[in-house]
Amino acid sequence: MLKLKHFLVIVPIILLNVFLLIISVVRTDKTVTLPGNLVEVSKVIEVEDSYINGSYSTIYVISFDKSTLLQNFIVEYTNEGEGETLPESYLHFSLWESYMMGKIQYEEALNSSIICAYLKAKENNEKIVIDYKFISLYIGYYEEKSPFKTGDEIIQINDIISYDNFENFKDAFNNRKPGDSLTIVRDDKTLNITLDENNINSFGIYKNYEINYDTLFPKIDIKKEVTLGPSGGFLRALSLYDSLITTDLAQGLKITGTGTIDLNGNVGVIGGIKEKIYTAYHNDVDIFFCPSENYEEALEAYDKLINPKMKLYKISNINEAIEVLLNV
Q: Per-residue b/e over 270-303, b at no fewer than 16 CB within 10 Å?
């Protein structure tokens, strides 16, 4: 009888543990997004002999592609999280490829933010120096039957080498046609892929710039950052710009936001905007800069906040954000 009682107690515990293990391991075709946290830019990129009266922070969300059953369950009952089915065009990506894509996006965003900030600051201070050059293109996204892979580095189209002549390479690549040959580097090996009607647009690209840190002035110290993706580019550029000029832009405010950035200061669309609004709200932010293409969705989340002190601004270029801070 005693053994039977032990059995009746132990079996449900074992079954419960098996159930928890299954829902924690079995992956689905969904992606979930949850609020994350802020990362102060000055703690990641420090400009020599600079001081900011306030703070600028990038903002990240917690996202899981091919989420587990347990993660889906948590999001289902979290008011500030979202879950959706992964597009079929992304189902062929492994978790490692998703990570690599985020890393490639981050590297482009980091370099673009530094170049953008220095070029913008140099407009008013000729002592600022930044030397950089375009090196190559990296492939992030690729279609399932494409011959390309995440991490492929495009260094040549036909006889035009990417880092030798940027303008000619850019023109040839943008006007590529079936029959053209792309030279790529994959796993330290050089491959040639001939473009045809099926593969000519079967991938997404990211620019690879090289900055000469020996001649850069003022110098910067870049620390390792664990977040990936392109969405911190704009805030890094804005923070660096404030560090390079004499005008006090931040004015003691806690500033965050999101958006991609290009060398001309254009701010682009990102994902997870609702979760970023919630994250900023919980961190007592004063100003949130939002890409214009994300604004309507951001405003929907913002209007649900209870007595927010945070002000939401729609911007499409770094110049607009600078104008806001000059007049705040």
A: bbbbbbbbbbbbeeebbbbbbbeebbeebeebbe
